[in-house]
Task: structure prediction
Amino acid sequence: MSGSDLFTGTLDILILKILKTDARHGYAIGRWIRENSNGVLNVEEGALYPALHRLERRGLLEAEWGRTDTGRRAKFYSLTKGGQRALEAESVRWSEYSGAVSAILSGPQG
Result:
């Protein structure tokens, strides 16, 4: 599944979750999603960076320039207090949503 296949809200909640404990740069966020989904989710740069900028504009992320492990200059994103609140709220909403979809998929055939 490519990044364009992810619903915007799904990518947003994944980004918020990833940044809950550590600041990361865009490439590391994309790699984390790919590795932790066993390669099922591969977020393209064309979807990831607009999502990061959107979340930053909404005040859910803050960014600071720094150096990667390889010495490259990169923007590191971290969660704001508003981002933490949004993650909590969206996690509840996601659980309800995914539970409802699962119930439909495993329920009687139409």
